[in-house]
Predict the 3D structure of the following.
Amino acid sequence: MLLPWVAAPVVAIAIATISAARHRGEAQVARVSIWPADARVVIDVRPRAAYDQGHVPGAISLAFRAGRFEADPFTLTTSPPSGTIVVYCSDADCGDGQLAAASLSAALGRPIVVYIPGYAAWKAANP
């Protein structure tokens, strides 16, 4: 997992790429129920208030609602990140994680991993 000072610019890169290439390519989303050991970039798509109350260490807050990221992608520039990108939401009933992952995958032209059980399950397994 990247340190926060390294990971934040990487997520910013992903947002910029989505803005520039929103409809390029097809989504490649891997749904997993076990936390990936090779997670390099971790994106929390819950509302910022939920992130502030607790999140996976090293995760970047990138809230996703109503089919879009709640960030200004036009202020971000550079190239797409390398390594495994993991997206998570609150729990297995939250569909935003899958939608955000599909959006990222289509824009970046690469697979994105969605941790389906979400933060609730991660927290229960990592007290």
